[in-house]
């Protein structure tokens, strides 16, 4: 069970890093068109687009949906990890 908890935590970490890389790449148009970034976009865009539907850009340029998406991901991580730890404590 501890391996599962560690694995889930690692998945959340990797996805968080992918989101950060995606957001930072948007500041560098040449890099954001690279093959690597297109691959990262396949994984991150569906999640980020969910938040973009509900949160409009500020002034048409500043997109805070990625910040909200990142915070939501961190909250979800805490909830999932807490639930897994609670289940683990019941099994001991």
Automatic annotation (TrEMBL):
GO cellular component: membrane
Keywords: Membrane, Transmembrane, Transmembrane helix
Pfam family, one: CCB3_YggT
Keyword ATP-binding in annotation: no
Taxonomy, superkingdom: Bacteria
Chain ranges passing through the membrane: 6-28, 62-87
Record bears the keyword Amino-acid biosynthesis: no
InterPro entries found in the cross-reference section: CCB3/YggT
Family: Belongs to the YggT family.
Protein name in UniProt: YggT family protein
């Amino acid at each position: 069970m501890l391996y599962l908890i560690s694995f889930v935590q690692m998945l959340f970490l990797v996805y968080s890093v992918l989101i950060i890389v995606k957001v930072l790449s948007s500041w560098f148009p040449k890099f954001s068109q690279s093959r690597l970034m297109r691959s990262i976009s396949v994984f991150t865009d569906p999640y980020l687009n969910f938040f973009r539907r509900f949160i409009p850009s500020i002034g048409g340029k500043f997109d805070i949906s990625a910040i909200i998406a990142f915070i939501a991901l961190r909250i979800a991580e805490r909830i999932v990890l807490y639930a897994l730890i609670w289940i683990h404590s019941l099994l001991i």
